[in-house]
Amino acid sequence: MESEALVREIGFLGIFMVPVGLYYLHRLPVRLLPVYGLLVLLFLAAALELLGLFTVTFYMNIVELSIVLLFGYAVIKKKGKINCPGWAIIVLFVIASIVSGLVNDIHLLQVLLFLRRYVIPVLFLWFLFNTSFTEKEIQIVTALILALFLSQIPVSFGKLLLVGQSERYMGTMTIFGGSLTAAFALFGVVLFFAFYLKERKLPYLLAVVGFFLFAMIGEKRAVFAFAPLIIISMVFFSQQRASMVTRVRQLSLGVVTASALLYLTVVLNPTLNPENRIGGTFDAGYLVNYTENYLFPDRAIRGSTHYGRGEAPIATWNLLTREENRIHLLVGFGAGDLILSRFVELPDDEITRSEDLIAYRHDIGYGGRTGLLWTLLQIGLLGTFFLFYFYFRLFRKAVRKGITDGKPGYMAIVMVGLITLWVLDTVLYSRVMLSTFAVVLPFMWFLYLSIVHPDFNFSKKLIIRPWKL
What is the mean pLDDT of each run of 10 residues along the chain (469 residues)? Predict the structure, then answer.
């Protein structure tokens, strides 16, 4: 464990956030203060905890309460005549979750703990849909989000100097969130690679490299698998109306960029090269063997027989399709059944993570923590279908709105990248893009822009000349 002095030094890396926070606070219209406060608080949560100012849990509770109040204010202001896309589907999702809890005799408060993970982010999106932002306000919030993302890159280098490569202390947002590191880095890659596809400016590629290094400092191997897929999807989509020659050229650019990211990920991540050091060699055979052993370890680990990310989906399906579990296939084993709280009876104090709880309940380990499997195990096919269908409809609308005369705009390109990230993370990796506010609130902001303001143009001044705002 790190010394108290070192922990405080890491907390002081939040100083990189101060100029960003003060700069945009100075230009902020008063009515944007709640959104500003939510975003800045989320990006400072871990730094404030390391400095001894309450806990991340305390800050998250403030964020959740604030979102509920903001949505309630929007309802009151519009006298109930609000625009909530997909509300009927969310109601069905809530009903399915409650039924799941009743069938499996889950405590009501445990069901509510489950629902808040999924519903509160949706309430934030609905709050945005029912708030009339001016073009100036949209520019300020968007610029703030971009600046907050960029501020985490120097923080990661400061952390590297203090404790080296590690999943701990990534950015100023989280202390232990390794999955957040990967999703956040890829989120940043999407935003700035979209800029590059439209502007062809070198600084945007440098930002992409910066987020890639952010992930490498956090020892996140998933980047080498996901980044190429995300980049290629964005390049392919952006060239829908281009000539075949142009499309081949741009797709080649995407393949080259993705290949470069793959190469750098392997040589800079000690676990992915045979020398087990930063700057090791690229050995395809070693990488394939490592990946196979990671996905399918085929041995008991941390109390579960089916531990790997490749093993967990198979084990989950086999569990739910057993003859005695037919009802569980539809309604799961209970909404909230995999959430640690005082309402859950545990055999000992060693179960401290949701992954450990999944292993205890179902003999499925780390791989069961993905958004898809975690949801499926608790509320079954019925509730999971409603949740994914809700997002599918929004994603389809966002992409369609961003295409004018067959040509995708900024927002459509961004959303294709973010949707690809959402699918990869939720189905294969974690549940960060479903419920972790530091990326979910920015995600909801861009989803809102894509649907309500699909023609919004990322002006160069948002990045190159923010003082012009």
Answer: 68 78 86 93 83 81 94 90 94 97 93 95 97 90 93 86 76 75 93 86 88 85 84 84 69 74 78 84 86 80 76 89 90 92 72 77 84 95 97 95 80 94 94 93 96 79 56
Contact 149, 43 (CB under 8 A): no
Q: What DSSP line would sit under 232-270, residue for residue?
A: HHHHHHHTTTS-HHHHHHHHHHHHHHHHHHHHHHHHH-G
Q: Which are the contacts of 436, defined by CB distance < 8 A and separation ≥ 6?
A: 177, 179, 180, 183
For residue 377, CA distances in Å to 57, 101, 204, 407 come to 25, 12, 41, 41
Q: How far apart are CA 181 and CA 174, in angstroms?
A: 9
* Token pair for 372: 């898809």
Rounded Cα gap, residues 99 and 92, in angstroms:
10
Q: What is the pLDDT of residues 315-359, one digit of tens each?
A: 899 999 998 888 999 999 999 999 888 777 777 666 777 777 888
Length of the chain: 469
Residue 255: closest CA among 281, 227, 282? 227
d(CA 231, CA 258): 7
Q: How many CA atoms lie within 13 A of 285 on its CB side?
A: 0
Beta-carbon neighbour count of residue 310 at 10 Å? 17
Backbone angles phi, psi at 304, to 5 degrees: -130, 140
| Side chain identity, residue 148 | L
**Using H for helix, E for strand and C for coil, what is the string for 205-217?**
HHHHHHHHHHHHH
**How much is the pLDDT for 124?**
97
**Is the alpha carbon torsion for 348, 354, 357, 363 positive or negative?**
negative
Q: What six digits make up the tokens of 374?
A: 């975690």
